[in-house]
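pasting input
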Amino acid sequence: MKRLKMTTFSVRFPWIIILAAVVITVLFGSQFPKVSFDNDPENMLADDEQVRVFHTRVKAQYNLYDFVIVGIVNEAHEDGIFNVETLGRIDALTKELISLRQNAAGLPEVVRDGQPFAPGLESSSAWNRALSNVFGNDVNWLFDNKGNSAIIAQEIISPSVVDNIKQADHGQLAIEYLMEDAPTTREEALTIRNDAMNNPLYKGTLVAEDGKAIALYIPITEKTYSYNVANLVEKLTEDWSGDDQVYITGQPVAQDTFGVEMLVQMATSAPLAGLAIFLLLLFFFRRVSLIIAPMLVAIVSVVATMGLLIGLGFDVHIMSSMIAIFLMPIAVADSVHILSEFFDTYHRFQDKAKTIKHVVGRLFKPMLYTSLTTIAGFASLATTPIPPVRVFGLHVAFGVALAWLLTMTFVPAYIMLFVRKKSLEGVCQVQDQEICETKPSRLDHMLTWLGGFSYARWKLILAFTMVVVAISAVGISKIKVNDNPIKWFTQHHRIRVADRVLNDHFAGTYTAYLTLKPELIRPPTCAERIHMMRNAAIERFSGTLPEASQIFLQLLDEANTQFQALENADIDRCFVDLVEEAKGLDEMVNGPWNALGDEINYLDPEGLTYAKLAAAMAGIGDEATRGAFAEHMQEFQSLEGAALQNQALDIIDEYAALSFTDFLFEARADAGAPAFKKPEMLAYVERLQAFLAGVPNIGKTSSALDALKKANYELNFAAEGSPERNDAFYSIPPTPSAVAQVFTQLEGMKKKDSLFHLITKDYNEVNLWIQLKSGDNTDMQAVVDQVEGWMAENPAPTELDVGWAGLTYLNVVWQDKMVAGMMNSLLSSFVVVLIMMMVLFRSPLYGLLAMIPLSVTITFIYGLIGWVGKDYDMPVAILSSLTLGLSVDFAIHFLERARELTKKFGGWKEAVPHMFQEPAMAISRNAIIISIGFTPLLFAPLMPYKTVGFFLATIMAVSWLGTLFILAALITGLQKYLFKHEGTKGTKEEA
Amino acid sequence: MKKLIAAMLAASAFGAFAELSVDEIVNKANEAAYYAGSDGRAEVEMSIIDKSGSARTRKFALLRMNTAGGSQKFYVYFKEPADLYKQVFLVWKEVDEGKEDSRWMWLPALNLKRSIAPGDKRTSFVGSDFVYEDVSGRSLKEDAHELIETTDTQYVVKNTPKMPGDVEFSAYTVRIDKDTFLPRKAEYYDKNGKLYRTVEATQIETFQGFPTVTESVVKDLNTGGSTVNTFTNVKYDIGLKENIFTERFLRRPPREVTR
């Protein structure tokens, strides 16, 4: 037979096959050293994915970095974290982190107490050190090629290096760091607390509102440094005794830690699962020499697949790290069928070659199809929009194909070469108990009983199935699609603990950025500006300076006609030309007053009397003005010195205050003001923030507005003013110019440009830093929806473009894509598999029947997820393809054998007892091996592995039941349609 | 004979040159850079350029007056951008040890006059890469000076702060032109010895006999940002009155800046 050619060849030339397998393994295995890892969930989205491009742009635009968040908590001290000792430590730690450098030996070094100090960063556990070595994870890797620190020192957020604006002595305004120096007294420490609590940017972000914790935000150049930076901080704070607890979190750290632990899992869970499978095989087949074959098939497929992945230049991602775990059961399953069959039929032939040919001949078709369906299931992942999932799917598909090929060639070759005839003596078949001495096992008994039950009570089984499906369907409707990379760690993992503690103290460690910009940035044209100016000029001047006002309006109108002719006039031109005119007008109106003012201003106040003042004024300005001035000064003639001078200037200012030039500059500033120097736009942001404060899960929002209001308050603060007066300045300054002048103070702080994390330098775009207490995608999505709803109801003064960025938001996007993608890929592979089944069985009815167990399994599994309340996350989504691939296998084998045995024995009823012996046995062995084999995964510290372990077992159990109960019951019910053509006899094995 | 005398004169001049101590060099450089004339004014155009290349421009007039004992007074009056129009900074720089500078600002749109605590002189000057100290000069007494190199045209002086905790640099070197004694390029090194900031005099012109920096560029190598200051309308010895540099002139700017 053609299909046997491959196997025949393997049986004849086993050495060639073995050699080929060795070559494949070595070839692919040699790629391993090139391995590179990628544990960044951001890469779940393609590089050019719009939201990711936007995220990257926002990061660049606002100079935002990924942070390692270090939380320091002191619950015990009466002043909480704000005690002299702890603040001193925090100050020292900050300075040490800033000083991080590479020493002559190439090792990380910080300055501690003025001396170089190289902390030992290696783990104290030999096991961890060994793992680090194996995976090339160098804890001292904290510098780029040029030796630059991974920490962006000038952007660290710590009390020692963040700006604070506050009232100093003598009515002065102080601009300094929040903790300029480590405090030496309790008073100093408490001053730092008060300053921090009075700054809206710091309260809840840098310092906990309960005063018990401080968070340092350490920006890093690349996310991949985060694990090592976290490790560095741990080592630097190792000697902190007492009540100061250090917690490290932040999404990059979580991701990086996950990556490192994922490697540990790859190195432990997969081999452990392999070991468990080996032991189970040994239990069933009791011959080490025999069961080494499936183990080798699994190993060669895994090595080749991973080698291919690495060789093709793909990074090992969270997804691909699970390839081994997914591939192993599939690879083993194939060869277990062969083995099981070989084991059961050897006694009939007493010849290895003949047995192999018989077994392969019989199993070729079902095994080809089971492999093809599994390949289809995984290959369908290539249709998802998530690159790592595509890579994963295609590689597993490759691995499955290879495993099939190896099963067809390597297993026979192995049996020929390495299984000694002697060891096969005594192997017996379950049904020939007279020949064999072995007693039927419990499993045999159970299966026999099962067969009888499935046949006799088929209606009951089907009814029960219907009920289960119905309950599951309800469960599916309850499924919550949600993921949160922090939850990939188990409850007691230090990352989860840190996450809990810090989110308890602070406003939230999860970051999202909401950016706003006008949909259209268009400075007004000259005509528009002039129009605006005209209205403002009438308001300001027409009452007090009617004549000059008329002239000014005329000038504006002339300018208007002039510029309307010019389509693309330089917008400042209309202004520049007008300024000269306005100066002339001012001279005309206020000239004499200003001349007086200037003259008085320059006078030396020392010994100044009214007589001297009057004398100095002689010949300045004009007669009338001097007269008016003298009249006003009448009652102040007794004043002297500076008091006299100031009084004189105040009087002049009353007259000279109205300046057309000033008006023009003001108008220019107003008209040309970018969106977020306009008070009405800032007021909108203020309202938005007030709304966000009430949204559940949002701990806090920060914006440039918070800094603006705080600065406005401090600038205008007057010690002698009433609290009401001072508090009134905790507000948006009234004009664009006023806003600009306050912002300028913030630009020139000690830590330059920190304002520009929240607003662009052109003040046209703002960035709201939203801190969430939960990284659940559902929570993030709820925030997005709420904002959308609010903005729809509360339109901004100018139409705004709204953008979201930040890792928490990115997770939502890739999750959405994944769910939709998985659904599509599941549906498409379902259809493909259905068609394959119809072709295989050459019957639509059989095809449909083959799909029943897997449909029930998938429904049940997802129903279970829904009922239990487990989030539908990334690992769960991926499991659907595995379910499809594995459960259909059982059905194929079962149906193929059912048809064959019914033919042989003349009827389904007669075939049932046989079905529940050898074929059911093979299926059961497979189910047990895979489900129990993967229990080691349940002990993994990472949730995705636990999930996979648990669901693999459940999938196996349910599809096993689904096949043996439901399929058997369905066949019973449908036997007259299924077996109507069965007349001819003749079995394949004789062919 | 004449030649011989000329040669001797040259030799003695050269000798004096060679014997110039580092303190004399930095004193002369400080004089040349910050004390030209008894007073002076200039129009400054400041361009703050970020790493992406986009620039923000500010224009201001600058008045300076030397007062007793090496102290100085500065008056900075903003003209552009329109929203900073008429904003004023007033600085009294003190050189005597133990005496702090005084600073005031006037924010016209807020009708606000505020005195600013002296605090840190190394804070950004209106959001630029220049710090206040670049504008007004750093007191020579704050650093230890060391002549590390003498080239044909320049002295290279290394300055190490006496109070390293007060500043963000560990040291800076200044290249000083031998002929004009103007500092041409300052290079600042961070605590790890890495060069992170440069201030360079890129153009020099002579006004009323005083060689004057007319373009200076500061670069922040960490952020990739830079700021360029261009000086025009430079005048010295204009006879400023000291009372211009008082709070009274914040609200009502002097003619010397408005014209």
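fyi The longest helix of chain B spans residues 2-19.
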